[in-house]
Amino acid sequence: MSRPLRFISKLQGRRVLVLGGTSGIGFAVAEAALEHGAHVVVSSSNQDKVDNALQRLRRVSSPLENGHPASGDAPATGATCDVGDAATIETNLKALLNFATSDQTQLLDHVVFTAGDPLVAATYGQSTAEELQRRQFVRVIAPSILGKLLPGYVRKAPTSSYTLTSSVTAVKPPPLLTAYTAQTVAVQGLARGLAVELKPVRVNAIEFGLVPTELHDPWPQQMKDVVFTQYGQATLTGSTGDVVDAAEPYLFCMKNAFITGTSIVSDGGNGLV
């Protein structure tokens, strides 16, 4: 008799919610969780993006599940959730959590927050109080409110987790992204604070270097060429990140039941150069 799979089966049958899971890093996390045999729920503020993501995700195969050779029936569902509206944020998140848990009858095992609004490059002297407050909302306030709501929707065990998304700008700020730098520092502090508040549920943050995704699509091509090239040259790997590799730290935080209140760095060694 073969020995049971103790490592790659850690997510098998688990329920995983990915906010921002219809594109970029979030989509890669959802895809990876499905490959590990999880049931995945994705969300976005756009219904077309949810529908498109589900079409692709349901074709994902899992070697841990019988009858999953890209058969179109992978256990993926999704719903819209606007995390950018201060007036409705708590109502929207509660509706998503109720959807993801079938009204709290199927509690979540893991929650991942990768949602983010477009990056704005500008000199700090051009910023206004209103603009700075608005920029904080999706990346800091929304995951804070979600953390507040999670106790009613997540299994209370160290095998459960909530993983946030930060950036190496928290320790190595680039020019013109001071507001974004402040957000990434806040997310790291939020992860540590929530790790204490939500125990035994584990909370961590992933600290990324530059990973080209759809988030960078609005940038002019010349700007992308310059920024991506310069970042790649300023790493030990000589490259920018890739969404497939970017999904791995989230899997680690989900699967490792003894890690909490910390930040995992994935930056190609940029912090050492």
From TrEMBL:
InterPro entries: NAD(P)-bd_dom_sf, SDR_DHRS6-like, SDR_fam, SDR_PhqE-like. GO terms for molecular function: oxidoreductase activity. Keywords: NADP, Oxidoreductase. It comes from the Eukaryota. Signal peptide: none annotated. Pfam families: SDR (PF23441). Belongs to the short-chain dehydrogenases/reductases (SDR) family. This is Short-chain dehydrogenase. It comes from Purpureocillium lavendulum. The lineage of its organism: Eukaryota, Fungi, Dikarya, Ascomycota, Pezizomycotina.
